[in-house]
Amino acid sequence: MNSSNRQPLLQVEHLKQYFKPRRDYTVKAVDDVNFEIYPGEVYGLVGESGSGKSTIGKSVIRLYTPTSGKIIFKGTDISGTLTKDARDTLRTKMMMIFQDPMASLNPRKTIGDIIGEGLDIHKQYTSRDERREKIVSILKKVGLSPEHYNRYPHQFSGGQRQRVGIARALIMNPDLIIADECISALDVSIQAQVVNLLKDIQAETGSAYLFIAHDLSMVKYFSDRIGVLHLGHMLETGTTEEIFANPVHPYTRSLISAIPLPNPGLEKRRKVVGYDYASSGIDYTVGSNHVLEGTHTVFGTDEEIARWTSKQ
Amino acid sequence: MEEKDKILDIKNLDVSFRTSAGTVHALRGVNIDLYRGETVAIVGESGSGKSVSMKAAMGLLAPNATVNDGQILFRFKNSSGEIEEADILKKDKKWIRRNINGKHMAMVFQDPMTSLDPTMPIGRQITEGIIAHLGLSKKEAWEKARDLLLEVGITDAEKRMHHYPHQLSGGMRQRVVIAIALSCDPDLLICDEPTTALDVTIQAMILDLIMKVQKTRGISVIYITHDLGVVAKVADYVNVMYAGKIVEVGNVNEIFYEPAHPYTWGLLSAMPDLSTDDVRLYTIPGSPPNLLHEMPGDAFAARNPYALAIDEKEHPPMFKITETHSAATWLLDPRAPKVEMPAELKARLERMRREAQG
Ligand SMILES: Nc1ncnc2c1ncn2[C@@H]1O[C@H](COP(=O)(O)OP(=O)(O)OP(=O)(O)O)[C@@H](O)[C@H]1O
Ligand SMILES: Nc1ncnc2c1ncn2[C@@H]1O[C@H](COP(=O)(O)OP(=O)(O)OP(=O)(O)O)[C@@H](O)[C@H]1O
Ligand SMILES: [Mg+2]
Ligand SMILES: [Mg+2]
Fold this sequence. Notes:
The structure holds 2 protein chains of 2 kinds. Chain A is an alpha/beta fold. Chain A has helices spanning 53-60, 84-93, 101-104, 111-121, 128-141, 158-170, 188-205, 216-222, 240-245, 250-257, 264-267, 277-280, 302-310; strands spanning 10-22, 25-37, 42-47, 68-73, 76-77, 94-97, 176-180, 208-212, 225-230, 233-239, 288-293, 296-300. Chain A has one domain (10-310): P-loop containing nucleotide triphosphate hydrolases (Rossmann fold, 3-Layer(aba) Sandwich). Chain A is 37% helix and 25% strand. In chain A, a hairpin with a 2-residue loop joins strand 1 (10-22) and strand 2 (25-37). In chain A, helix 4 (111-121) packs parallel to helix 6 (158-170) and helix 5 packs across helix 6. Chain A starts with 9 loop residues before the first strand and ends with a helix. Chain B is of the alpha/beta class. Chain B has 2 domains: 6-235, Rossmann fold (3-Layer(aba) Sandwich); 260-357, no CATH class. Chain B contains 12 helices and 12 strands. In chain B, the strands form 2 sheets. In chain B, strands 6-7-8-3-9-10-12-11 form an 8-stranded mixed beta sheet, with helices on both faces. In chain B, strand 7, helix 8 and strand 8 form a beta-alpha-beta unit. Chain B is globular, with a radius of gyration of 21 Å. Bound molecules: adenosine-5'-triphosphate (2 copies) and magnesium ion (2 copies). The site of one magnesium ion (MG) has 4 residues of chain B, from helix 1. One adenosine-5'-triphosphate sits between chains B (17, 19, 24, 26, 46-52, 62, 64, 110, 291) and A (155-160, 187).
């Protein structure tokens, strides 16, 4: 994808998101992260559990107020206090599919009403029939059936619940969809169906995705570019091809070596390349971003980058 | 050689749920066997009844559930050291909670938030069970809890024990749940999508950890997972589930290299592998069956390009292929026409086998 001469849809600049669960304890969940997403692009975010992926998603959609840094969406800075206009754009043009479906679906509402919520708030229909039609059509698109309309979240399987969250986001035709682990609870055929659906929607409406997932084979398949996070730091970013063909940061290499292979004979003797930050000698607070080639960027000191790139 | 010790035997389990739209017939005769020390994976379509089967085994069915038929025989060492067999379906919830859950059987759920108490720091949530089931002192329990957290890869364990669930990332929450499950040395560990919330490195670590614990303590593990890579890594045997039934069972090599049921063919065709570059992923045609309606024949028939006339009328029985491998498809009936799996899948499986040997 040639993105050099286009305006990014989303720019995240020096984003920091800190939490202070106790007075004497700060969690630097996101620490100086930069990336951008172009219209119609899929940006995959991968990294260790707890590395800040969901937090980035929630900061971008402004469930959190960033500690510092800038978030620019469709040319407007949305990192500070939001004007009414900015809030409206945000609410209709950006949607998030949450990782924890049970925690994000109101247990007292029927599936139909949960999915129709966005339509209701923004009055995107002229009659009850049209509303129902829109909801039923999206239910079918995500592989649920019209009979599910009046059921409650707890009456669904994990994967069915996840698809409710997907339907709720897609029904608004947003420009940016933040999909946080939206397929991991689904069986492989429905995963394939949802990913095909996300691709269709993208072709149809030109929406872009921030695609957060642990399943690296799916990330590889779906994403145009990938960012690798660890402990709140963006360590490596580039096109999917650049990252998978030539992973440079030791963490990225370890991550790729850990992908389980759906082949019992191979899998039972696969070796994971270990990575332990504490004993690696690497310090994420020193160093800078080095552009290797194209968009492939790695964070480290000059010496580290020289060492990591001379290995092969 | 010692005779294999069967610890769980689910026989013909049939369960339905009452809902406002009608009766959902979720389990339609499920059979699952598990021997001590072995690992069984249950894979299959979302909504096919994997979680409900395991909730039934733990006596945790929802209040709107009805058990129409079946037995769930669980064999465990009771407090006097004798092997006791119980039919979970015949026991009341209180007995199960007191004698089985957490102690002999532990479960790690798909959604960690449902098994953690949001109002209690995680340290206390782990120690509670340890104190109740193992009778350790508060201080000993705290130390054991901390060691368990370290074991599941939570490095700043001491600090984290004061945190509430919402202050942890999704993956950390799941590791806490796994620590709780392991805390009382169960005989049977049931993991429902234990690692979907985890990144691949932690996933590998957790699976290795469970495999290690399994070896040293001789526990049996049931994994429910959609990740066929995980299945390939951990499973001895695989059960494939569709619309409330087990449609194929076999050892892990049989299921991956010689699948016999058309649903299993579809499943294996849909997984992306690292070399997938196709524009679209394969998906099984049609939509999942509606469990509100009774199905006279094979539930998969409508989506099965290889369906035979008899599939519309009659459920296929389990046809035995080897001692360990069976599948419920009429294609295996001696009278059926000879049908091979799709050529693309065949080529892919051949490639997989070559890679496995190479
Ligand atoms: N509300 C909060 N209060 C305190 N700490 C928090 C809060 N939310 C997240 N954190 C911490 O921030 C860090 C990043 O969490 P986040 O949920 O973004 O991780 P993640 O990359 O999405 O992980 P996972 O893959 O496990 O979902 C973790 O250390 C987490 O404990
Ligand atoms: N309490 C309930 N009331 C009504 N229907 C239910 C209830 N619990 C489960 N079901 C239905 O029973 C079927 C089996 O559900 P189950 O949770 O076992 O699926 P699963 O195989 O675990 O799927 P997934 O892979 O998505 O987790 C589904 O169709 C589900 O909608
Ligand atoms: Mg997350
Ligand atoms: Mg389930």
